[in-house]
Design goal:
This protein is 66% helix and 0% strand. The protein is an all-alpha fold. The chain has a domain at 155-260: Serine Threonine Protein Phosphatase 5, Tetratricopeptide repeat, CATH 1.25.40. Helix 3 (84-105) runs antiparallel to helix 4. The longest helix has 52 residues, at 25-76. Mean pLDDT is 86; it is low at 269-279.
Length: 279
């Protein structure tokens, strides 16, 4: 908003100066428009640089946190007697701390809302991702219910759309799930639509609508070429809905928190079974 006001003010000053100099009206209008556009894009450029700097800092928080987790995993790999479940809980705790830090850092974008009309929605989109990962679902639902041109999150990525569908399913809004799916899936061509097809068919199976899920997957497997969707289609064709599984999508699927990932296997300690015995 401020960008436009500043550009308008600059344009007016140029027009007034040219009129005072008794410049031809057509020339005055031309340079007034040029001044408006030049000032608007100059301010916009400076604002984009500021936004980029804050985004880079936020990205550094996420990347740095992931690198620390990776180092922790590498340090214990190959060591006997490692408690895998304990390690997993520690990693989950570390990840939550990273997301909380990133969520707090999004406040740095707030002052930029006065300069960028869409910044409010971009902030909401980032917070949606972090709050969902933290399982703060009440706040997630509040964000998704936000109304207004400059308030709600931008659902421009498959994961964001899937998060909305997952919350609608959890809240019992089946009509909303289908509406969201149909509205957004058409914009994600090829493999980008895989997660949405997988989620929609999973919900249909859970609702006992296996035939609808089979027909959906029949088209989805061809348009995406995904092996998991093909596998699930084959299971439904053979009347084996209990074998339906989106596990092949890995973290992308389990990140929706609709199913728990397989429990890690405890590492066995191999040693001399006769250690400590006398002969």
């Amino acid at each position: 908003m401020f960008s436009l006001l500043i550009a308008a003010a600059v344009s007016i000053l140029v027009v007034v100066a040219l009129l005072a100099a008794q410049i031809h009206t057509g020339t005055t209008v031309f340079f007034g428009i040029v001044a408006l556009l030049a000032a608007y894009y100059l301010v916009g450029y400076l604002v984009r640089r500021k936004i980029k700097a804050v985004q880079n800092d936020l990205q550094a928080i996420l990347v740095g946190g992931q690198q620390r987790i990776s180092r922790k995993i590498q340090q214990v790999q190959g060591k006997p007697g490692v408690n895998i479940k304990l390690l997993q809980r520690q990693i989950e705790s570390d990840q939550k701390n990273i997301f909380r830090e990133a969520l707090e850092y999004t406040k740095r974008f707030e002052p930029l809302k006065r300069w960028n009309l869409l910044m409010g929605r971009q902030i909401a989109t980032m917070r949606l991702q972090f709050l969902y990962q933290l399982k703060e679902f009440e706040q997630v639902d509040e964000l998704l219910a936000s109304r207004g041109l400059f308030k709600g999150p931008l659902l421009m990525e498959p994961m964001s759309v899937a998060m909305k569908m997952a919350r609608q399913y959890k809240n019992g809004d089946m009509a909303g799930v289908e509406k969201t799916f149909k509205r957004h899936v058409k914009w994600f061509r090829g493999s980008r639509g895989t997660l949405l097809y997988a989620l929609m068919s999973w919900i249909q199976v859970k609702q006992g609508e296996t035939e609808k899920a089979r027909l959906l997957l029949q088209d989805a497997k061809e348009s995406t070429g995904d092996e998991t969707l093909t596998y699930n289609w084959e299971r439904l064709c053979n009347n084996k809905p209990k074998s339906f599984s989106n596990a092949g999508l890995g973290d992308e699927w389990y990140g929706l928190y609709l199913e728990n990932p397989p429990a890690p296997k405890q590492q066995r300690v191999r040693g001399n079974q006769f250690k400590g015995r006398g002969f």
